[in-house]
Specification:
elongated, single chain, about 425 residues, Trigger factor, domain 2, Chitinase A, domain 3
């Protein structure tokens, strides 16, 4: 076997493999001889068909089969001989039998990853803590989630729920299909077009009001976008929010069976601290990845980027399938995902090199503690733990997450780290963003 390699770009290779004709003929002779034992040809008894007849009838097919076998047998041997590490599947471009059996395989190779820039990483570590005020704010939010509404005999204020009937007209055309009845608006939620909720403030039951507003330029209905509209509103009810008391009944609704308010506050704080820890670790991980991607430039194989783009697009396709939409209607341009795909591929290669060069081993005890932490927020945590360990794929997802966390910690230990103090709300808002 003769092998030659041509470098066509930084990562692209064209490998030519030649197998001597004698090898091909030897394999063909053996295959045809085996075939002749059972070949059924008119005019000949089974096993008595002359070799030249068998070759004439089946030679072309057998040579094609042998060609496929030779490619399978020689491709990986040739790669090993040339010390090549292909990324993705090869494209077999041509077959030429003038010098024996000859083919060319075109593929990309993995880039060489240099970790020289790792020691120069600069990372900002966010730090934060849960304060008593943060706990109180959270408890107020929990109260608001269980608030009820009570009718009032006064003019509406911000935060009130107002039930109205209204009509809307633009350019002398009614766009509300007549009159809309029993429409509920919470003043201050900003769910209506700008200015609508403000015009409901100060109105009491039985009041009516006519006012003019402009629809936003980017409004979803093109016929109304940017247009002026006149609204005629009648108020049916005005209700104010009523927050529940933090009593035994309230705290039991959040899983505190003994009904102690102090236990409830402790539980809220513990949950907030878990969420904050997750948010801070995620933010630190993002900062490390950003620094790593910026510090270690890497040309990545197109085949890996293409595969990653497909992975990024998959959830959209699955959603479209569930909604019985045509994939063409999604209008998802490839370049919408390309930069993110390149980043993910590059970081995957860099992290893989960090793991290999520094012999970082998965900490299985940490995998267990991570799953236990994830299970704490469920009513039956041991069932959740068993659920993860019962499925190899689910467990692998956690293992990969833990291994990435271990790599991030190693990178942080090598980097120049400065700290940024954040409030609880800032830390959580940035994480959600």
């Amino acid at each position: 076997m003769q092998v030659s390699v041509e470098k066509t770009s930084e990562l692209s290779r064209k490998m030519t493999v030649i197998v001597p004709e004698a090898v091909v003929q030897e394999k063909m002779a053996a295959r045809l001889k085996s075939l002749a034992r059972n070949a059924k040809v008119d005019g000949f008894r089974p096993g008595k068909v002359p070799a030249h007849v068998v070759k004439k009838l089946f030679g072309e097919r057998v040579r094609g089969e042998i060609a496929g076998d030779l490619i399978k047998d020689t491709y990986y041997s040739a790669l090993k001989e040339q010390d090549l590490n292909p990324a993705g599947h090869p494209h077999i471009e041509s077959l030429d039998e003038s010098e024996g059996f000859k083919y060319t395989a075109v593929f990309e190779v993995y880039p060489e990853v240099s970790l020289e820039g790792v020691s120069a990483l600069e990372v900002v570590r966010p730090v934060s803590a849960v304060t008593d005020e943060d706990v109180e704010v959270m408890i107020q939010k929990l109260r608001q989630q269980r608030q009820t509404w009570q009718a009032v005999d006064r003019a509406s204020q911000t935060g009130d729920r107002v039930t109205i009937g209204f009509t809307g007209t633009s350019e002398d055309e009614n766009f509300t299909d007549g009159r809309v009845e029993d429409y509920v608006v919470v003043c201050g939620e900003n769910k209506m077009i700008p200015g609508f909720e403000d015009n409901l403030l100060g109105l009491a039951v039985g009041d009516n009001k006519t006012f003019t507003l402009n629809f936003p330029e980017d409004y979803g209905n093109e016929k109304l976008a940017g247009k002026a509209a006149e609204f005629a509103v009648d108020v049916t009810t005005v209700e104010e929010p009523v927050l529940p008391e933090i009593d035994e009944e309230f705290v039991k609704a959040y899983g505190i069976e003994e009904g102690f308010v102090g236990s409830f506050q402790d539980d809220v704080r513990a949950n907030m601290e878990r969420e904050l820890d997750t948010a801070l670790r995620a933010k630190l991980k993002t900062a490390v990845m950003d620094a790593l991607y910026a510090t270690i430039p890497l040309t990545v194989p197109n085949s890996l980027v293409d595969a990653e783009v497909e992975e990024l697009m998959k959830p959209y396709f699955e959603t479209a399938k569930r909604q019985k939409m045509k994939l063409d209607d999604l209008q998802l341009p490839r370049d919408m995902f390309e930069e993110q795909a390149k980043r993910r591929v590059a970081l995957g290669l860099i992290l893989g090199e960090v793991i290999q060069k520094n012999a970082i081993q998965l900490d299985n005890d940490r995998v267990r503690s991570t799953i236990e932490d994830m299970a704490k927020s469920y009513e039956r945590p041991y069932d959740v733990i068993d659920w993860y360990y019962a499925d190899a794929k689910r467990l692998n997802d956690v293992q990969q997450m833990v291994l990435e966390d271990q790599v991030v910690e190693w990178l942080v230990s090598q980097a120049k780290v400065t700290e940024e103090t954040l409030s609880f709300s800032d830390a959580m808002d940035r994480q959600q963003a």
